[in-house]
Amino acid sequence: MRSIVAVTDEMDNAEAAVQELWDRIVENGPLGKNCCGFVYCDVEMPHEEFTAALKKKLPFEVVGCTSIANFDAKNGAQILSAVLVVLTGDDVRFGVALTDTLTPENLRQELSAACEKTRTAVGEPGKLLFLVPPFNDVVPLDEYVDTLSELTGGIPVFGGLPSSNVADGDILMYADGRVFTDRAAIVLVGGNVRPIFSVQNVLSDLSEQKHVISKAEKNVVYTVEEMTFTDYLRQAGLPVDDLIAQGDLAVYVSTPLKVNMSQDNDQDKVPIVRTIKTLSLADGSGVLFGAISENSVVSIVTMKRQDIQESCRMAVKEIQDKIEAARGDGYTYSTLLCVSCGGRYMVMGDDKDIEGNILVENLPSGMTLSGFYAYGEICPTIYENGTALNRVHNESIVMCAL
């Protein structure tokens, strides 16, 4: 399998944008027997016209979403653009499925039907599952990932939550030539493919004290030991009342939680990061951008520019080492997909090229680069013997090489 990446800066005329993307694909062809496209797009694009034009012009399925900024090998990280990556090959197969409107009650049924549709199309259980979820509060992102892991027997799941670089901008996912805020799409990849992954989050301790989550449900924390969650944050020195009054997400992003999940949920022993989404003075609870379990051990950390640089370099080094090791087994890699946290993008301030530059400067020869900044990153922390431990991450950078 190989990949072709096309980029357009055309944000006003959707049909012209699609034509430019298609021209770049044709120039860098040929396409193989089977293809699937992933597109990441600035919110300034007229989305309904854009997705309809993609459906009409391209002879294969395309899924994707809006994003804060996109990655490609020429520009690094870029806003006001659309990036399309086409995976293609004669010895690889793709199955694409779109759910109906999702609720907590029908989530498993809808994802099960989608998995069955993609398995039928691919003709095998598959080697990798891409998830394009909706951005809303109806179903926590972890439930998508956990349910898909169960339904597929541990196939690796990769992707990210749609994002927006405009405060009131639409946060959308794309599938079947349409835009949605309440559905999910999955893409199953089968055939001659062996994905490898990298996950990194490097943070600085704000408080060395570790505490135990005593009451939590899904992605809501109620109490930390004997304290309400908001009192725990106050104890650590965060101005909770001011933050709530200001709705200051930027502060929550720069001071996330480092979490060692409880024993039942910590098979990998890898600490994960959780960003606070909202706080409630009424009951002292906090809503996070990812799930958390009772008896997890947490501490408050900070994320600075040097942390972002270090973790990005570590992620690149890890994927390079894995690619080199795979070459010894006779595998070659041509595609690098990268999803980084929108919180990292915010923390970089005026120097938002940090990660993009590192990726471009260290991209292995002959590989394409594509991806986007997300509001939640999806990637396995363990992938051994065909089985993955899939997790949702915050404030992290995740990579998949194909």
Q: How much helicity do the residues have?
A: 25-40%
Low-confidence stretches: none
Q: How far apart are the termini? A: 8 Å
Strand content: 25-35%
Task: Quickly list its features.
single chain; about 400 residues; alpha+beta; 2 domains; 9-stranded antiparallel β-sheet; 6-stranded mixed β-sheet; 10 helices; 27 strands; globular
Describe, in plain words, how this protein is organized in 3D:
The chain is α+β, with helices and mostly antiparallel strands. It has two domains: 2-199 and 307-401, no CATH class; 204-302, no CATH class. It is 28% helix and 34% strand. It is built from ten helices and 27 strands. It has helices spanning 14-27, 47-57, 107-122, 141-152, 229-235, 240-246, 249-254, 305-327, 342-347, 354-362, and strands spanning 2-8, 34-41, 62-66, 70-72, 76-78, 82-89, 92-98, 128-132, 157-160, 173-175, 178-180, 185-191, 196-200, 204-205, 211-217, 220-224, 227-228, 257-260, 272-274, 276-279, 286-288, 297-302, 335-341, 368-374, 377-384, 387-393, 397-401. Helix 1 packs parallel to helix 2 (47-57), helix 3 (107-122) packs across helix 4 and helix 8 (305-327) runs parallel beside helix 10 (354-362). The longest helix is centred in the C-terminal third of the chain and has 23 residues, at 305-327. It is globular, with a radius of gyration of 20 Å.
Please summarize what this structure is.
The chain has 402 residues and is of the alpha+beta class. 28% of the residues lie in helices and 34% in strands. It has 10 helices and 27 strands.
